[in-house]
Amino acid sequence: MTGYLLRRIPTALIVLFVASLLVFAVLRLIPGGPESALAGPDASPEDLAAIRHDLGLDRTFFVQYFSWLGSVLTLDFGTSYQVGGNIGDLVSFGLVNTLVLTVTAGVIAIALALILSLTATIRPNRFVNAILTGVNAVAIALPTFVVGTVLIAVFGVGFGVLPAGGTPPAGLGDDLWITVQYLALPALTLGLPAGAMLARFLTEALQTELVQPYAVTAVATGASRADVVVKHALRNALPSTITAFGLIVGALLGGAVLVEAIFGWPGLGMLTEEGISARDYPLVQILILLSVSVFVLIQLAADVVHAWLDPRIRLAGTR
Amino acid sequence: MFRHPRLRILVALALTTLTVVGATACTAVDAQQGPATRTGPVQRGGELRVGVLGDLSPSKFLQIGTGGPNGDVLANVFDTLVTYPTDSSTPQPSLATSWTLAPDGRSLTLNLREGVHFHDGKPFTSRDVQSSIGAYLGGPWTPQFKRTAAGITGFDVHDPHRVVLTFAHPMSNIFDLLDSAPILDGDTLDELKAGKTFNGTGPFRFSSWTPNSAIELVRNDDYWDGAPPLKTVTFVEANDPKSLYTRLRTGQLDVAEQLTTQDQELATKRYGFTDIEQTGAEAQIYVGVNVENPALADPRVRKAIAYAVDRDRIIDDVYRGSGYPVNVPWPKTSPAYDEAANTTYRRDVAKARDLLRGVGPIPPIRLDYTSTGTTYRIIAEIVQSNLRDIGITVNLQPNEETVQAKKLIGAQFPGLWILQHAFAQYTPSTLAVTAYPFNAAKNSSNYSSPEYTAASEAAWATADPSSPEALAAYRRLDKVWLNDLFLIEIGVVLARLTAAPNVRDIAWDHRQQLHFARTSLTDPDRKA
C-alpha cells in the first residue's frame, strides 16, 4: 500500500506544478493589469509604470514565477495588492465561511433527498409521484440566481421572517440560532438543486433494489413496503448514492460562488470575484491553486481507497 | 400514512424545523426594525449600518472615487486642514483655524488648531502637515491632487501650531488639496499602507475590519469638535447593489450607497426611505473622442455628434432625472457655470446631417463602454441609436472596468468612449490639472493645442479663483471644449443616497464621502 502511495505522489506533484504554471500564465493573459485597478482613471501612464515596478511586474515572466513559487513552497503566500494584509488570513476567513455554507447546504440536500426518495418509493401512487417529480424538476431546472432571488423576495422582503443577506453582525459563533437564520436562505438556495439531483439517484437505486429477489421475497412473506425500503433496500442503495454525493459536493462548492454574491456571504467565492476584478494576482493564484490542490488530493484519496479495496490495482506495476 | 416509526420521526423532525423557523425566525429580523420619527432633540448612541459596494483598499486609500468604503472611512477617521461646504469651494476651518494667502499668491500661512490629538494620543502639530503632504506625494497612492501637492516647494514648521507653505507659482486650487488631503500620522504610515492601522484625528476611531464583510468605527469621545452622537458606525460590504437594496428594505441597513437608479427610486417613492441628493458632489457623463481617428479628426464630425446626442433622454431615462444636460463640465454650484454655454449643442438631427454633408462617407466608429452594471451599456446604446439617425454607424465594445481604465490612461480607445469624470465641482482650474481626460499635456483623446495649454495654465496660476482673470481663463477653456470637442459632455449627474427614516443629518463632501460626525438615530436603543 505504501509503495502504491509513493508511486502516485510524483504524479500529483507534477499536476500541481503544471497547474501553478498555467494559473500564473493565464492570469497575466487577462487584459488590464493590477496597476490599472490600483491607479484609477485619473492616473498618468507614469503612475502606472511606477506601480508595475513597485509590484515587480516589470520583471521577466519566469523570474516572477519562480520568485512566487519559492515563496509558496515556504508557505509565504504574500500580500494582497488590493486589500493588503496576509493572503493566508484572507483565505482562511473565506474558507471557514464557504465551508459553513456548503456543509449546511449538503445537510439540506441529504435531508431533501431522503424525504423525496423515501416518500416516492414507499407511497408509489400517481398523485404523489407527479408532485415529487414536479418539485424535483423545478429544483433542478431553476438557476441558482432565480431561486435565490425568489427566496429573498418571499422570505426576506415579503414575509420578512429571515435576513435577506449578509452574515450575523456578531459573528457566526455568537448566537447559533441567529446564525441558522442567516444561513437558511443561502444554504437552501445552494442545497435545493443538489438535493433534487441526489433524490433522483437515490430513488433510482431504491427502485432497482426493490425488484431484487430478496426484496420481492420479503414483500411476499408479508413485510410492509416501508420496512423493506428502510431496513433493507436503503442500506444497499446507499453506496452508489454516496458516490453520486461525492460528485455533487464539487457542484456545491462551484455554486457557492454565485450564492455568496447573491446573499453577500463573504466566502471564497466573493473573495475570488473581488480578486479577479482587481487583478489581484497573488490572491487569485493562491485561491485557484488551493482549488486544484483540493481536487488533486480528493483524486489521490479516491485512488488510494480504490487500490486498498482492489489488490489488482495496488499490485499493478510492481512486477 | 408514515407508519414506519423511523420515517415518522424523520418527517416530524423536518416539519418541526420548518414550523419553528417560520414562527420564531423573527429574532434576527425583529432586531433590525424600529419606529422612526425625526422630531425632537438629537438622541445619542446607537449603531449606524451603512451598506457599501466593495471593500476597503489601503492601496487606493488616498484616491478619490475609488468606490467601496475607502472615502467614507477616510472622511470619518481623519480630518483635513480645511473643509468645503457642499454648495461652494469657500474653505471653512477644520484643523486649520485661520490662514493668510500672500498677496503674490506664492505662500500660505495656516494657523493650526491647538489641543488636537490623534486617536493614539499623539498631539497634532505642524510637522504632521508636512509629513502628510509628503505621504500624499509618495507611493503607493496616486491621488488626484498630486500635481498641486508637488507645487508646494517649502514648509516652515518651526512653530508647532503654524505652518507656512511656499509655492513654485500661485495655485488657485491649493485649498482643493487642503480640503481633500487627510492629515495622517507619519509614525504609522507603513501600517496604514498595509491596512493595519488607521490613526487619525477624526470623529470616529477605526475599530475593526473583516475583509469582504464589515468595517467598524467607534465614537471618538475626545474629538475636538465634540463627540459625535453615534456610538458606532458599521460599513456592511456587498458586491451586488441588489443585495444592498434588499437588506435596506428589510431593515438590515440604515443607509445604502450606490443603489441602482431604479431601486433607489422604488425605495424612496414607494417604501418611504429618505432620498438624499448629494449636491456639490457632482460627476459628469461624457462621450470621449480620439481626435487622431481619421473619421473623427474633422471637427465637423465631432460637432455633428454633439448635435446628435440626446442628452435629455439620457438624463431623464437612465438617471431618472437626477442631473441636468450640459455642454461644458461646470455644475450649477461652480463659479464657472455658464447657462448660455450649455445651449450651444442641443439635439438637432437636421443640423448634424448638414454638417456631415460636406464630409464624405464616414466608416464605422467603435464606441467603448464599461460593462460593469447596466448604466453605461444603456447610454452607449442610446448614443449608437442617436448617431445612426445622422448616418454614422457605431460598433459597441464592452470593457471590464479595469480594461476601460487601462485604455483611458493609455489613450487606447480607437474611436469614441463613454465614461464619467469629476472635479468640475472644485475650484474650476482643478479640472484641467487633476482629471486625466482633461489634462492639457497628455490625455486620452490625444488632443493638444497651445490655446488649451495656455488657458489651463492661466486658470491654475491665478491666485484668486474668482478674480476676473480667472473667470476669463474659464471662458477660454469653455471655448476650446465647445469648438474642439475632444470630450462631448452629456450631463451633470447627481449621486443619491438612500436612508431609513430614522436616520438624521448625514453630511457629505465634494467627493461623495459621507460624514457622520453629526448623524444620529431617532431610535438609538434599537437592538443591533
Automatic annotation (TrEMBL), chain A:
<keyword id="KW-1003">Cell membrane</keyword>
<dbReference type="Pfam" id="PF00528">
    <property type="entry name" value="BPD_transp_1"/>
</dbReference>
<keyword id="KW-0472">Membrane</keyword>
<feature type="transmembrane region" description="Helical">
    <location>
        <begin position="283"/>
        <end position="309"/>
    </location>
</feature>
<feature type="transmembrane region" description="Helical">
    <location>
        <begin position="134"/>
        <end position="162"/>
    </location>
</feature>
<dbReference type="InterPro" id="IPR035906">
    <property type="entry name" value="MetI-like_sf"/>
</dbReference>
<dbReference type="Pfam" id="PF19300">
    <property type="entry name" value="BPD_transp_1_N"/>
</dbReference>
<dbReference type="GO" id="GO:0005886">
    <property type="term" value="C:plasma membrane"/>
</dbReference>
<comment type="similarity">
    <text>Belongs to the binding-protein-dependent transport system permease family.</text>
</comment>
<feature type="transmembrane region" description="Helical">
    <location>
        <begin position="99"/>
        <end position="122"/>
    </location>
</feature>
<protein>
    <submittedName>
        <fullName>Peptide/nickel transport system permease protein</fullName>
    </submittedName>
</protein>
<keyword id="KW-0812">Transmembrane</keyword>
<dbReference type="InterPro" id="IPR045621">
    <property type="entry name" value="BPD_transp_1_N"/>
</dbReference>
<keyword id="KW-0813">Transport</keyword>
<feature type="transmembrane region" description="Helical">
    <location>
        <begin position="12"/>
        <end position="30"/>
    </location>
</feature>
<keyword id="KW-1133">Transmembrane helix</keyword>
<feature type="domain" description="ABC transmembrane type-1">
    <location>
        <begin position="95"/>
        <end position="302"/>
    </location>
</feature>
<feature type="transmembrane region" description="Helical">
    <location>
        <begin position="241"/>
        <end position="263"/>
    </location>
</feature>
<dbReference type="InterPro" id="IPR000515">
    <property type="entry name" value="MetI-like"/>
</dbReference>
<dbReference type="GO" id="GO:0055085">
    <property type="term" value="P:transmembrane transport"/>
</dbReference>
<feature type="transmembrane region" description="Helical">
    <location>
        <begin position="182"/>
        <end position="202"/>
    </location>
</feature>
Automatic annotation (TrEMBL), chain B:
<dbReference type="InterPro" id="IPR030678">
    <property type="entry name" value="Peptide/Ni-bd"/>
</dbReference>
<dbReference type="GO" id="GO:0043190">
    <property type="term" value="C:ATP-binding cassette (ABC) transporter complex"/>
</dbReference>
<dbReference type="Pfam" id="PF00496">
    <property type="entry name" value="SBP_bac_5"/>
</dbReference>
<feature type="signal peptide">
    <location>
        <begin position="1"/>
        <end position="25"/>
    </location>
</feature>
<dbReference type="GO" id="GO:1904680">
    <property type="term" value="F:peptide transmembrane transporter activity"/>
</dbReference>
<keyword id="KW-0813">Transport</keyword>
<comment type="similarity">
    <text>Belongs to the bacterial solute-binding protein 5 family.</text>
</comment>
<dbReference type="GO" id="GO:0015833">
    <property type="term" value="P:peptide transport"/>
</dbReference>
<protein>
    <submittedName>
        <fullName>Peptide/nickel transport system substrate-binding protein</fullName>
    </submittedName>
</protein>
<dbReference type="InterPro" id="IPR000914">
    <property type="entry name" value="SBP_5_dom"/>
</dbReference>
<keyword id="KW-0732">Signal</keyword>
<dbReference type="InterPro" id="IPR039424">
    <property type="entry name" value="SBP_5"/>
</dbReference>
<dbReference type="GO" id="GO:0042597">
    <property type="term" value="C:periplasmic space"/>
</dbReference>
<feature type="domain" description="Solute-binding protein family 5">
    <location>
        <begin position="90"/>
        <end position="405"/>
    </location>
</feature>
